[in-house]
Amino acid sequence: MCGIVGGIAQRDVAPILIEGLRRLEYRGYDSAGLAVLDENGQLRRERTQGKVQRLADQLMENNLQGTIGVAHTRWATHGEPAVRNAHPHVCRNSVAVVHNGIIENHAELRRQQQKQAHVFTSDTDTEVIVHAVYDHLQRGGDLLEAVRQTVAELQGAYALGVIAINEPDRLIATRHGSPLVIGVGIGEHFIASDVYALLPVTQRFIFLEEGDIADLSREEIRIYDKNGARVERPIKESALSGDAVGRGGYRHYMLKEIHEQPRAIADTLEGRLSGDSVLSNAFGASAEEIFNGVEAVQIVACGTSYHAGMVARYWFEGLTGLPCHIEVASEFRYRKHVVAPGTLFVTISQSGETADTLAALKLAKEIGYTASLVICNVPESSLVRESDLVLLTRAGPEIGVASTKAFTTQLTALMLLVIAVGKHRGLHAEMEAELVRELRKLPGICEQVLELDTEIAELAEDFNDKHHALFLGRGAQYPVAMEGALKLKEISYIHAEAYPAGELKHGPLALIDEDMPVIAVAPNNTLLEKLQSNLEEVRARGGKLYVFA
């Protein structure tokens, strides 16, 4: 993912923007850049491949300072990782733009602009935006109007930050399908992709809604909705501090977040249980009425959240008898649907801003689902605002690229949902009480597992010279195996695949030898004997087994 930071102040914003970019490094990036209007009103820009620190060094070396600016970390989509493709992009050294998202009609716009004598210096879709803003300014409009006219020409998703030399006291920001937040200060205001980037300078935030355009000066914030009407958006006070996204003595964020899981699960359960029962009103005031009419469940999510949803499908059908379907959001949004009466539409997202999941929710509202419910970690996110019912996971900021505590708290929240809905589908009080007692044990069990970190680290050494790995599971543990394979790919760049253990004989078995580590998830349940038979097939072919039992 890309990251945006921008600001307008009475002090030099360059160090603030650099610190903001550092706090967005967790999103992943291949290049970074920054542009400011200096004391002479000139647009100055620095870009680099590699780390934000390299960009910071360039700013120091070239003494780049200014009281208004925009900055960006880029993850290549259109155009290879290269300095020429790094943001900000500029037009004739008078307009600078940073952009998150994808412009789907960029090729058509590029052809039109080339006919108007614009020279393109990058391969990106973003460059068409800055040229369009410049053209509209040349026709006599101000910067706000130029941005408004530009976004009317764009198809796709975007969050934008725009500055121009002819209006040095103005920063324009807008969003459509990509998140953007305003940090509210005193005599200064900022924009960013998420609040973590701005916590060192403010804890007061405005969350822009879809289609909003914000006009920021040092003293004022004006916001216009997608129809051009002036609107007031509420200022939210964040409970997070700048230290909330620190590593807390751990070597890296992922390790810290792995060890935060017991507390995150406990926080997710807090206030949602009463004695041996789940409180349905934890999902919203109308939850009881909605749950009473649920006849089926449709879950939509992406990545790790999709794996959590796959586990929940086993729970819904096994514990409540309700039909439950799960689909990747990027597939769900592009096909026709037959919606059974009484179907609850459930989305799962750590950020609440996943573009495909948001689009799926929008579609779901149009095609007749009973109600929408989101399980999410970010209170002011788009999915939370647009869903009928909400359960927040309370995992806290997840900075590591690979999800950890978000996944386990999503599973915790999904079990709460299964129980709350199940009470209306014949789930007996005895079974509810047993499930609640097991949920209460989870934080302590997690603590016990984390005490195995030394042994697990020793096992991990075996993977140093491996190029492939296979993860196996049965039943609800198959999605857990999928999550394990995803983690290994994300963190080590080792190719890994997950299979239902019963499918070994349909292909994967042919790949197993002494160089293929096989990781199995093997709880003591009714499928254990079947799984053991599958693992014997692996052992017979010389594969090295790592069994979590």
Indicate the topology.
Blueprint: E1 3-8, H1 14-23, E2 31-37, E3 43-49, H2 52-62, E4 68-74, E5 89-91, E6 95-103, H3 106-115, H4 127-138, H5 143-152, E7 156-164, E8 171-176, E9 181-184, E10 189-192, E11 204-207, E12 213-216, E13 221-224, E14 230-231, E15 236-237, H6 253-259, H7 261-269, E16 273-274, E17 277-278, H8 287-292, E18 296-301, H9 303-320, E19 324-328, H10 329-332, E20 343-349, H11 355-366, E21 371-376, H12 382-386, E22 389-392, H13 405-422, H14 429-450, H15 453-460, E23 468-473, H16 477-492, E24 495-500, E25 517-521, H17 528-540, E26 544-548
Parallel strand pairs: 18-19, 18-20, 20-21, 21-22, 23-24, 23-25, 25-26
Antiparallel strand pairs: 1-4, 1-10, 2-3, 2-4, 5-6, 6-7, 7-8, 8-12, 9-10, 9-11, 11-15, 12-13, 13-14, 16-17
Describe this structure as you would to a colleague.
The protein has 549 residues and is α/β, with parallel strands linked by helices. It has three domains: 3-237, 4-Layer Sandwich (Glutamine Phosphoribosylpyrophosphate, subunit 1, domain 1); 253-452, Rossmann fold (3-Layer(aba) Sandwich); 465-548, Rossmann fold (3-Layer(aba) Sandwich). It is 35% helix and 24% strand. It contains 17 helices and 26 strands. The protein has an eight-stranded antiparallel sheet, covered by helices on one side. A seven-stranded antiparallel sheet has the order 5-6-7-8-12-13-14. Strand 21, helix 12 (382-386) and strand 22 form a beta-alpha-beta unit. The two termini are 36 Å apart.
